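Re: the pair you flagged

First of the two:
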Amino acid sequence: MALTPTQRGVIRGMAIAATLTIVAIIGAAAWHPDELLPGDDTVARLTYALKWNLLPAACLLVAVLRLARHRFFTPEDIDGGGLSPGTQRAHILQSILQNTLEQTVLAAFAYSIWVVVMPHGWLTSIPAAALLFVFGRILFSRGYERGAHARAAGFGLTFYPSVLMLAVAAVYLTQHMVFG
């Protein structure tokens, strides 16, 4: 089966995002400068994760504000999506908002699980993931209207760090439960 140009573009963007994710998450864990690490007690760890959740939350806030601003200044959209068919721009902003909400929830879970499960030195992966999240959301939003190939890298930079962190934490936790 031959891939379409759009599919090849999506694969290229996702491959770039996957590579950057692996380098950033594993690199941050390997480098783990002490000045970026919290204390090694539960409260300090959870506080650390919550602080870094500020970046995904800020991206979500921006997505909400962009749609709200559009609706306020666009008479066709001011009543909201449930009361009007909505303009094309409102649909695009709503789609970006929906995806950002999904990614923010996933990232919050990933950071929270990572900070509780992983060894202390690995916690510097959380700032790396949070920074990738912001960069990814910017790329996703800017590329959205140009199609799947143009937003693929941005999507991957928000999605892959969460997936990688959840997968590694699950393997680590399983190994420690089975092998002690």
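Second of the two:
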Amino acid sequence: MKKLLYICLALGASLNTLVAELPVADAKAIQGKWSPAKAELAGNPLPDAILKTISLKLDNEKYEVFVGEKPDRGTYTIDPVSKPKSIRITGTEGPNIGKTFPAIYELNGDTLRICYDLSGAKRPAEFKTVAGTQLYLVTYQRKKK
């Protein structure tokens, strides 16, 4: 009986350590330079010509987006424990200064998928957009160094 108790305690401690490390792992893995591979807004795909002008940089809870030569900068915070994982974007410089966008994200190696609510109303529940909304779904690929 004591042996079983020790095993349960050891498993519990291991799980607590794993859960505590999860935010740190995502926080590091999400950093980098990203290019959109595909995107859609309100159920409509964005043309490749527009996608080619967009770049995203995530670095230590700060973001920088360029659409052409126009920068948009701000901060982001992630919650990798929520289901689905969430990210909150706050503009501090550029066209989105003072705006906050709730979003969800999925990180799989060098692919980052984010669904933003550009209305700022609430965090999306799933990775899809619908006509008549301001939901913006982007699949980014990590830029190679």
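The radius of gyration is 18 Å.

-B.
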